[in-house]
Amino acid sequence: MGFGDLKSAAGLRVLNDFLADKSYIEGYVPSQADIAVFEAIAGPPPADLFHALRWYNHIKSYEKQKASLPGVKKALGKYGPADVEDTTGAATDSKDDDDIDLFGSDDEEESEEAKKLREERLAQYESKKSKKPAVVAKSSILLDVKPWDDETDMAKLEECVRSIQADGLVWGSSKLVPVGYGIKKLQIQCVVEDDKVGTDMLEERITAFEDYVQSMDVAAFNKI
Predict the structure, then answer these.
(1) CATH number at residue 164
(2) What is this structure's pTM?
(3) Residue 99 predicted with pLDDT over 60
(4) Elongation factor 1 beta central acidic region eukaryote domain: which residues (predicted)?
């Protein structure tokens, strides 16, 4: 088992082929296995080895957290395809040096204690993965709400705007901005969940207060 010499072009090709259908060296999350292989590479793989380059850039992003990644770092020869000869010189036939593999064991007979520990760790991982909250896409929007004239009650206009309530909509700070001839517009901030609230809906609801509102424009729109 092994990748061969990962500082050579041949070794990198073996790594690239190995990662063609895998995201990580072992399992389904970044681990010490990825760190061990990453540290054996001299630098980023060439662009034509895009599986290896994709994996390299991803693991590089964990540089500050690498010590906290799960697993126990093993000899480099313990990773990689089974049909490639290990040329790192770090491999050993001694079973005394083998680390416990929580995702599987090479021993013909697995002790009950090791089996129980592996099953508990796998159950904990699956539980954490299922409870991980989905990422909610949000945007911060700055709206310009313009009145009909300088006699429009701007306090009432703002009250009308803030009366609009919807799941995924939170109103923020506001201020009155002069636009000329004694007229002021309401500039108001809001945060929305992109899947639930859009600018078209906001415009439709705000301009429905036609006794106060002449028009609504989006002054700024930023993803959070």
Answers:
(1) 3.30.70.60
(2) 0.43
(3) no
(4) 102-129
